[in-house]
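re: ur question from earlier - yeah i can do the single chain one, its not a big deal. heres the input i used so u can compare w yours
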Amino acid sequence: MNIKENPAILFVCMGNICRSPTVEAVARVEFARAGLAIEVASAGTEGYHVGDAADPRSIAVAEGYGYPLAGHRARQVVRADFERYDYVLAMDRVNLRALERARPDSGGAEPRLFLGDDEVPDPYYGNHADFEKVVALARAGVDTWIERLRKA
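and the output i got, formated as tokens:
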């Protein structure tokens, strides 16, 4: 994988209120701790929650680990995101397919899974442990990206 020195990364889930904003928050903090100047953002493939704050459970768990999330406002992926961001990273295969359909014919960033071959499961209908798992997977995935970016 060819990696730019200071890429811009967009994390994507369905509604942009649970998984992708949590990963964005973790990435923002951990990239800064690693001394990496990486632009990060998040969006959803659907517009169900545009303008809404992150899910209160996501906020509570993320902030409990020191990842600020209270200021997040959901937004939907737009075509320009594929040009603006070097990496468009989906949380699961359903959203990966939606991103592949949304990608402009002119190209831009090719969507891929954030965790390589694995998915970040949607905690929305789950319990506290499911939101904890999202933070754990976010940290593991971001650590992998830090290693990749340092090698670039």
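The domain at 8-151 is CATH 3.40.50.2300 (Rossmann fold). not sure if urs matches, ping me
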